[in-house]
Design a protein that fits this description.
The protein is of the alpha/beta class. It has 19 helices and 15 strands. The chain has three domains: 11-117, 2-Layer Sandwich (Nucleotidyltransferase, domain 5), CATH 3.30.420; 134-304, Nucleotidyltransferase, domain 5 (2-Layer Sandwich); 330-535, Hypothetical protein af1432 (Orthogonal Bundle), CATH 1.10.3210. A six-stranded mixed beta sheet has the order 8-7-6-9-11-10, with helices on both faces. The longest helix has 23 residues, at 189-211.
Length: 536
């Protein structure tokens, strides 16, 4: 694939994943400022592989359904002025003896050129899509995606995988092979064990390789796994006593017992189940349970990201206009993308962030707080995004910042972290942060206090670049005693607006830290080589 460039007006690209069970579409605008915006996500079940795995031939009805959905998706994408389409097909298409008939029909009826990818390429793209949306750090994960016709796994860290595998195991395939004759009936334990042994035999050699790897967590990225987690959440823990997005092995076993005991029509009524998956959900559960049992996995974390996100990541990696792609973490990338897509003043955002981190670090030296890297990271990202609400309106932009951050798809962050960042941005101006104002009901007292402290640091940092001119070079707390703390402000020229801004925060500072804030302004001069010097 050739490298691509973005013109002054941007570029809109559509990514389509034709799976064995569903067709998924992602429409993305690539902006000239090196950001991108997701315009729409669509999904429609087509059951392309229904009835195929007996004779390796896609039925005419399945081809008709798939072509109709693809044509409608292409028409929708063109309403967004999409100019390029990247489309792939997976298990059902790659195994079909009438593959060419499907591809020709898609080309003729939907005006869509589709590339059939191998199982390993599918596993690679899923890994890219899922890992790029998580904050793994130094951890290594086991990734599992259960499709309709195949199951893809990978083992890897944030940037690189160690193992990629694809198996001819899928929810539709196993349903066709083992359950189709008695589809409407409950599943007997003996029948379930037969399917489980079949899956175990298929994965045994790969399981031995995986056991030699260090696995810190397991991640499931398919509709089957997500639906099983939903059932566990709503059928087993209706009061919300279990964390959402996490499926334990113990709960999975209970869900399987529940589903197997019910005929198909009653299965469709189980709380949390997607009725359209009721006929194939047990086959998907067999695959998940077997992997978890063989690898001794206590739980799996679910994610909605998958192959289509991997197509986007792969596309980005080949673009000249995204030079930072691959060098930033998922957190850094998602924050930068959000900021740029909302047109933030990036110079001001970076200046405030730098000053805020200097305040945080020096405050820790003065024992004003004992927070660590986790809190520092959240402070950094919240400071960068603190003015993002100006995208809606400058008036009350702190409240708009809260709304945008809280409701954005910030990859690599969990919901609590997003709430914390949103509240820090919310209180960077106007109303002082108080516990009764914090819209984070699930935070404990320590975390509520943390939001108040970090919001205070952003208020100081924002004041220190009040003119948006970068006049303050550095700042740090230099002395602290029982009654007061001294803040050094090193500026290259007159920064009276900034000083007034900090002075306006002195009362709020004293309420948070129970100390008076003393301001010490230090002028700096620059020599002929551009090096700064302090002048007291």
């Amino acid at each position: 694939m050739k490298s691509r460039k973005i013109g002054a007006a941007g570029r809109i690209v559509t990514f389509i994943d034709i799976g064995t069970n569903s067709v998924r579409m992602l429409v993305v605008r690539f902006n000239p400022n090196h950001s991108y915006s997701i315009l729409t996500r669509q999904k429609q079940q087509v059951r392309l592989g229904e009835g195929e795995f007996d004779d390796e031939e896609i039925t005419p009805e399945a081809i008709d359904r798939t072509c109709l959905v693809c044509r409608k998706f292409v028409d929708l994408a063109r309403t967004f002025s999409a100019e390029e389409f990247v489309a792939v097909a997976t298990s059902a298409a790659r195994e079909a003896s009438n593959q060419n008939e499907l591809l020709n029909r898609l080309r003729r009826d939907a005006l869509l050129d589709v590339r059939v990818i191998s199982g390993l390429e599918e596993a690679r793209l899923i890994y890219l899509g899922v890992a790029s949306g998580m904050h793994l750090g130094d951890r290594q994960a086991f990734f599992l995606d259960i499709g309709g016709g195949s199951t893809e796994i990978s083992v890897g860290g944030q940037q690189q995988y160690q193992i990629l595998e694809s198996f001819r195991l899928g929810a539709i395939r196993l349903t066709n092979l083992f359950f189709s004759r008695n589809l409407a009936e409950p599943v007997h334990s003996d029948q379930y064990k037969i399917v489980q042994q079949y899956v175990k035999n298929a994965i045994i050699h790969t399981v031995q390789k995986i056991k030699k790897q260090k696995i810190d967590l397991a991640v499931g990225s398919s509709g089957s796994i997500m639906n099983l987690a939903d059932i566990a959440q709503k059928a087993l823990h209706p009061a919300g006593t279990s964390p959402s997005g996490v499926l334990t092995y113990r709960d999975l076993k209970k869900v399987i017992d529940l589903l197997c005991a019910l005929p198909l029509e009653d299965r469709r009524k189980v709380p949390g189940i997607n009725p359209e998956r009721a006929d194939i959900i047990i086959a998907g559960a067999v695959i998940l349970e077997t992997f978890m049992k063989e690898l001794a996995l206590e739980s799996v974390t679910t994610t909605s990201r998958g192959l289509q996100d991997g197509l986007l990541v792969d596309y980005l990696s080949r673009m000249e206009d995204f030079p930072l792609f691959g060098t930033l973490s998922p957190r850094e990338t998602s924050v930068l993308q959000l900021g740029r897509s909302c047109g933030i003043n990036e110079a001001h955002a970076r200046t405030v962030t730098r000053l805020v981190l200097e305040i945080f670090d020096s405050a820790k030296e003065m024992k004003l707080h004992d927070y660590g890297e986790w809190e520092r990271d959240l402070l950094e990202y919240a400071a960068f995004l603190h003015d993002i609400g100006s995208f809606i309106s400058f008036t009350n932009h702190h409240a708009h910042s809260y709304y945008i951050i809280k409701n954005s798809e910030l990859l690599g962050f969990d919901l609590k972290e997003i709430d914390i960042m949103a509240n820090i941005a919310r209180f960077h101006r106007k109303k002082k942060p108080r516990k009764k104002h914090l819209d984070v009901p699930d935070l404990d007292g320590h975390e509520q206090r943390m939001v108040m402290v970090l919001a205070m640091f952003v208020r100081l940092g924002e004041s220190l670049d009040r003119s948006h001119a970068g006049l303050v070079e550095h700042t740090k707390f230099i002395r602290s005693d029982k009654n007061e703390v001294v803040l050094d402000i090193i500026a290259q020229s007159d920064c009276q607006l900034e000083i007034w801004g900090v002075e306006a925060e002195q009362r709020a500072f004293e309420k948070v830290f129970s100390k008076r804030l003393i301001i010490n302004v230090i002028a700096s001069r620059t020599d002929g080589n551009g090096n700064g010097h302090r002048e007291n």
